[in-house]
Design brief:
- With 345 residues, this protein is α/β, with parallel strands linked by helices.
- The chain has helices at residues 2-17, 20-25, 29-48, 63-66, 99-115, 129-140, 161-167, 185-197, 212-222, 240-247, 257-264, 272-285, 289-300, 307-314, 318-330, and strands spanning 52-55, 74-79, 87-92, 119-123, 144-146, 172-175, 201-204, 227-229, 252-253, 305-306, 334-337, 341-344.
- It folds into three domains: 1-48, no CATH class; 87-264, Rossmann fold (3-Layer(aba) Sandwich), CATH 3.40.50; 287-344, Winged helix-like DNA-binding domain superfamily/Winged helix DNA-binding domain (Arc Repressor Mutant, subunit A), CATH 1.10.10.
- The chain has a nine-stranded mixed sheet with strand order 1-2-6-5-4-3-7-8-9, sandwiched between helices.
- Strand 4, helix 6 and strand 5 (144-146) form a beta-alpha-beta unit.
- Helix 5 (99-115) runs parallel beside helix 6.
- The protein is elongated and about 80 Å long.
Amino acid sequence: MLFHSRLRRALSLLDRYGSAESAWAAVDEPEKAAVMARAEKEWEWIQAHDIRVLTQDDEAYPYRLRNCPDRPFLLYTKGHVCPSEGHIVSIVGTRRPTERGKELTAALVRDLADRLEHVTIVSGGAYGIDIAAHRAALEAGIPTIIVPAHGLDRIYPITHRPEAVASLAKGGLLTEYPSGTEPIQSNFVRRNRIVAGLADAVVVVESHARGGSLITARMANDYGKPIFAFPGRPNDPASEGCNDLIRGGRARLITGADHLIEAMEWKTRKSASEGMQTSLIGLMDNLTKEQQIILAKLQEAEEGMHINLIVMETGLAYGEVASELTMLEIEGLVRALPGGVYIKI
């Protein structure tokens, strides 16, 4: 860690002085000697283990990450972790997911792989939603990038080593930490900014009221990245964080890949209208009588209707209308606008 702090200081000098020569001249001789000794040892390890090191000036440095103000100065990579085409989706969530959360993760990745020509899944390689996303990507045959909170001389947790090795075929491993760096708590927090910065979109599947996935979402928001979250039952602790993100307007509600693809306006293997039409037919068959009545009224109002007007027009009770509108929003059939107005999608 001492080497890493010294290296970060040297690179911050590079950022300040504009050239390696000027930055190096600003470092005192004892520090130069210490950095050089550790750098030589690190270089030997890098060459022996087929590690690629990228500086922020390298053409292969991920361009999405380069645009982040607190981007890492150095990246250590193994495998194929710098896709030049397609979409990158970071999927995060609790380390203690429900079965529903794991199923939602698998279905999201599977459907993204089926609908999109090129898509890469990014996560942190941790227990829970992270590893569920990586496994789903491997099963679907699409690239997945694991961003560990330590050096590439180890895998943590060790039980995820098979997934880490398998990821190298199409995706791989990417970290800012040199060899010898242990997975301490502060590293996980810093690692989250890379998970956020690499992505075109960040999806939170399940999250408790506090957790690393919410930190990732906050960082993604700071970077101007779109954030999406799966809603959960009101009393489900595993979804409390997701529900808060949605309620606070910090994340868009999705229930599957189609909602994400539509919101991001991504081109799919088949036309979006074809996919949405099939989805809507299935949804309409499962709607309650009250939901169909509400949708019919919203269909007539191109600019939407206030909930009070929906109550008057349908003759349904206010509480019933509010409940059914929530379910229709979850299904992606209506959208809530400011001021209690709802519009049919």
